[in-house]
Amino acid sequence: MNVPYEIFVGLRYLRAKRRTRTISLNTFISIAGITLGVAALIGTLGIMTGFKEDLQAKILGTTSHAVVQLLGQQPMAGYEAIVPQVEEVSGVVAATPFILKQVLLTSKTGVQGIILRGIDPEKEPQVTEIASNVKFGRVKDLAAPPNSSSNPTIGNPSQTPALPKPGIILGKELALRLGVFVGDRVNVVSPVGRMTAIGMTPKIRPFQVVGIFESGMYEYDSSLAFIALTEAQKFFNLGKTVTGIEVKVHDVFAADTIVTSIKTALGGGYIARDWMQMNKNLFSALKLEKTMMFLLLVLITLVASFNIVGTLTMIVNEKQREIAILKAMGATPKAIMRIFMLNGVVIGLTGTAIGIPLGYTFLWLIQTYWTFDPTVYYISRVPVHIKALDVLLVSFSAILISFMATVYPSWQASKLAPASALRYE
Questions:
Q1: How far is Cα 141 from Cα 397, in angstroms, rounded to an integer?
Q2: Which of 35, 42, 81, 371 is the most exposed place for a label (fewest CB within 10 A)?
Q3: Are 122 and 232 in contact (CB under 8 A)?
């Protein structure tokens, strides 16, 4: 098999002479620059993707993939007939009604404004991960809190028994702020109550804590609580209406398409939003941050490309006589350019080939040995996820920058006149 002479000559030019190590040292520095740039890019993108997906998993563990409501977010009546319609849409796994209101939660030691969600204890675990997030207690206790039977007081059978308190599940941080645990009592205060002669009075009802959940998201754990759907309807005087319908889909990344199908199936008068629309600001910020970090870290590779320019310029100055001889023997300017462009491509490929496993090793070390206190950071280790598309993008960028750095030195070499180079030889 005959190897083109451009490849043979180009690879020889990357090696140093016996008399000096200057060119080989510059070649090594150029390769090291590309290697570090590729490793830094892969490491950064892997960590940022891991954090984004960890955040996404925590959000989708507490909230549904999509929400269906009436236009104007008015109370939805007849939801018993709408839920089956939604579940018949292709791609939908399950659907359940919910109620969402802002209230005040009080205990003996604290007061906190929260978001109160009324859910169906039987169907909610089919739509969200609330059942797995509950660390103490059970979701089904919302419907029938334990030890809530109305037994008369011992020693006084004639006394009227106390009414059982409905159950409530609190976030971990919320429970700590209020100083309560499973079995304790809290009061739910709604600003919209009964109208009296002195104006509207708040509505207050006691609830028994039947569970504590931990989602890993501070915003949810500190300001979210769950009660049974029927209790929410009674407390807020909603009758047989709800705020909307929660929906779980097969593919979370196709939720926007499924939401469109839901709106088509239900007809006008309804709005449907997927999880990306409901958290658009957050995920847009994460995407922008990842893009900016990629562009900034590409500068490392650009700096390494200047080493490639310097190395090839030195090679051209060092090899003027050899270039002139090749031209005198019939080498074309394009062939001379190919020789030096090959040098840059070899540097880029070598740096990329070393940088990719170095980046993976860096991420493995961070994920294995860098630990956190989960009570403070909600994570015990740095989340890492490397996407093949990110690796391909980094590799392509490094090789392209390395190739572009060869254009000017190669063009200078192709312009070299044999007569002027050999005049004093």
A1: 56
A2: 81
A3: no
Task: Specify the pLDDT at position 161.
Answer: 47
Q: Are the CB atoms for 68 and 82 separated by under 8 Å?
A: yes
Cα 243 to Cα 69, 70, 85, 305, distances in angstroms: 7, 8, 17, 58
Under-70 pLDDT residues of the chain? 1-8, 10-24, 145-163, 193, 195-200, 374-378, 419-425
Phi first, then psi, for residue 394 (nearest 5°) are -65, -45
Domain definitions of the chain by residue range: 5-57+283-422, 92-249
Distance CA 124, CA 74 (A): 22
Residues 6+ apart with CB under 8 A from 283: 52, 56, 276
What is the torsion angle, in degrees rounded to the nearest 10, for the CA atoms of residue 66, residue 72, residue 75 and residue 77? -80
- Bridge-based pairing state of the strands 244-249 and 66-70: antiparallel
Question: What is the phi/psi pair of residue 217, to 5°?
Answer: -105, 120
pLDDT for res 211 = 93
Residues whose CB is less than 8 angstroms from the CB of residue 418 and which lie 6 or more positions away in sequence, other chains included: 324, 325, 327, 328
**3-state SS, residue 416:** coil
Helix H segments across 162-273? 172-178, 218-223, 229-235, 255-266
Helix (H, G, I), strand (E, B) or coil at 65: coil
